Amino acid sequence: MEIKWIGVSVLTGFFLLELGAMAAFSYWGYHIKTGAAVKIILAVATPLVIATLWGMFLSPKASLPIFSFPIRTTLKLVVFIVASAALYASGQSAFAVIFLTVSL
């Protein structure tokens, strides 16, 4: 029974990291130095596109899964690294370092 709870805990942690990445992309989109309409579009569209691609290719129940473990893991790491870079570019360097450290 304990092994099941460990698996659930790990999956919950990964899911929270994914949500954190989506929040980072949204924060970045809203803090781009441009017009208000573009900010809102980027804040909504960027995490939506990333979440759609994640769901199609990288999620445990992906519709078009990437079966190669090294490639799938590398792509997930790239998403987390880019999310950290987005936080850093938005002026949130401390959160970027924390998010990168936790996600790696």
UniProtKB/TrEMBL annotation:
Claim: Secreted is one of the keywords in the record: no
Domain of life: Bacteria
Keyword Transmembrane helix: yes
Pfam family, one: DUF2568
Residue stretches spanning the membrane: 6-28, 40-57, 77-102
Keywords: Membrane, Transmembrane, Transmembrane helix
The name this protein goes by in its record: DUF2568 domain-containing protein
Gene source species: Bacillus cereus
Species lineage: Bacteria, Bacillati, Bacillota, Bacilli, Bacillales
